[in-house]
Amino acid sequence: MLREAIGADDPDKVAQAIARSADLHHTDADGMQPVHTAAKEGYLEALKTLLSLGADVETEAVNDKSSRPLHLACEHKRPRTAKHLIEVAKADIHAPDTTGNKPLNRAAIKGDLQIIKLLLAAGADIEWVGVWGWHPLHHAAGNLQILATQLLLQRGADLEAENTNGETALHIAAEYGAAAIIELLISKGAQLDAINHTGDQPLIKAVSKGKTVATDILLKRGADIEAFESKGGTASLVAAEKGTLPVAEILLARGARLTAIDKESNQPLHLAVTYGHLQLVKLMVEHNADIEARGASVGLNYGADQGDQPLHVGTRWNQDAMVKELPTAGADIEARGEHNQTALHIAAEVSNESVVRVLLDHNADYDAWMGNDTPLHRAAIVNKVDNGRALIKAGVPWDQESKLGDQAIHLAALKAHSAFIGMLLDHGADIYVYNRGRGSFPLLTAAAYGQTECVKYILTKSPILEQRTLNGDNPLILACWNQHIDNVKLLLKAGAEINTTSEAGISPLHCAVSKNNLEITRVLVESGVDLTLNTYQWRPLETAENLKFEEMAKILRNAAK
């Protein structure tokens, strides 16, 4: 009943509804009381009646930023109700809502000139700091309210007032692409080189948001095209990162340098490649961007990220289109980075298979060295199975050796990369292949380095347990010496000879005893190890006693009973 009366803006019906016990302070589902609704919808006569019957002009809505009636009248552009609330009801024009905005901030957002004038005439603070530290002038500029902006300036608003981030109204107008407001602010003397707290000038804000008209106006009015922003870059670097092609075209047309660098020595081309902006990359190449320039791979740290050329950067970031485009544009596919890596080394280690294939399609050298390794070795070390497969399909021999004598299968065993080993076996690799550099086999390597899951996998492919190093060590001896009990148990279960000895006569038990590893010793004893085997003419018990391993000696004595 009361709602309908308010909606009809009929004071008599409102009074009748209240007289019939309608709740003057009833809060609806939106958290608003009748007085809020009347102010919001501009029902002036209903509002007057509600206030005369005792409605509180300062009551706060529950679910709407604690808005008071005057806030709602300002926000919804109701000048008649706002005028009554200000001049007759004497509403508090300085009351903030929960965001910090006062009535003038809300009026500036909506650009209602009548309400702004009413508030200023009543003494509203033209520099009140609202949400985000915005003054009314920021609100007007950021909401494209040119007439409100003009009015506030006429009434003395501070042209250089800063928000929480140190931004002036010109920063805000530039960010939101408010071209006419930019012109107005500059004509009033706004500083083109004003810097916010992160080091950005208005031009950078316009460029970062892709505001072409705003960018053009700022440049025409004298903005410094080479001014630095927060990351140490210029407008051309910002455009490259954001991929704002039309803005980049404006910048290049006005002479922006493609040799500008940021704090990490990246040029615009590095950034455009990193973020996959293909059309922008093509534009920069057309404008003679340095396709061989060195950068820092935009902060990535894979151990080989300094001195990267754009092709290296595109490879690290899995940008297939960039990796296709750059060699076509003249990039050297065999160019080396700081650590002597080619793009194919990088791709094999950190990229997707598609990037590897693109490089191979451009005839990248898969035999190229990076330190001791070729791309296949780099893929094996980090378990990039698909990349390894792509290399082998392209013609890389599975038994390609590193400068240390490692083959990919040995490196995969060293790192416990069973999936990579499986891929190599599927392509003809030999599980019994000898490592000339380490004097070892895949099973020996996995056993020595405690790679239990890898040992388990290799055992399904290799039933031969008596493979030996140059010193005559077999997998069980190495597992005991390096104290990898899980591998010891696994090898014993697979049938490894427990009393085997190396060429020096060292047995698994002697390894465990000399390392004072009680757990492995117990496993060997429980598995029936020979307690009388000599090493350097010492039996295991004598070794324990000579080394003063009392608990070890006790275990061996008890086992000998």
From TrEMBL:
Pfam families: Ank, Ank_2, Ank_3. Keywords: ANK repeat, Repeat. The keyword Repeat applies. ANK repeats lie at residues 30-62, 99-127, 132-164, 165-197, 198-230, 231-263, 264-296, 306-338, 339-368, 404-436, 471-503, 504-536. The keyword Repeat applies. PANTHER family: ANKYRIN REPEAT AND PROTEIN KINASE DOMAIN-CONTAINING PROTEIN, ANKYRIN REPEAT-CONTAINING PROTEIN-RELATED. This is Ankyrin-1. It comes from Passalora fulva (Tomato leaf mold).
